[in-house]
Amino acid sequence: MGSTVLSLRIDGELLDRLRSHAAKRGMSVQDYVVRTLIREDFDERFKTAVDETEKFYGEADGVPGADTATGTPRDHVRPSAGIA
């Protein structure tokens, strides 16, 4: 996969915040922004895959998020949980 240039015009305050976040992680602003975009893209693709799987297999007892044995709600974790 090749790379392409993406030029952005952003507010000075936003750039300062991005610099701060990147510096806390020892990264360049460019690396920080790319990493953030990749993480967001992964979260969206993961959620879509989970939704499609639930559509394919159906919900347990017709109740979204219900445990099949007890009918009680299951805990759900956001796709981005644990991703730093």
List the SSEs and their pairings:
Blueprint: H1 12-24, H2 29-57
User: How much of the residues is beta strand, in percent?
Assistant: under 5%
Number of DSSP strand runs? 0
Largest sheet: none
Separation of the first and last Cα atoms: 25 Å
Instruction: Give the helix proportion (percent range).
Output: 40-55%
Shape annotation: elongated
Write down the Rg.
Answer: 19 Å
Unreliable runs: none
Write down the secondary-structure element order. Answer: HH
Number of helices: 2
Average pLDDT level:
80
The helix/strand class is mainly alpha
Tags for this entry?
84 residues, mainly alpha, 2 helices, 50% helix, 0% strand
What can you see in these coordinates?
The protein is an all-alpha fold and 84 residues long. It is 50% helix and 0% strand. It is built from 2 helices and no strands. Helix 1 packs across helix 2 (29-57). The longest helix is centred in the middle third of the chain and has 29 residues, at 29-57. The two termini are 25 Å apart. The mean pLDDT is 80.
Question: Quick gist of this model?
Answer:
This protein has helices spanning 12-24, 29-57.
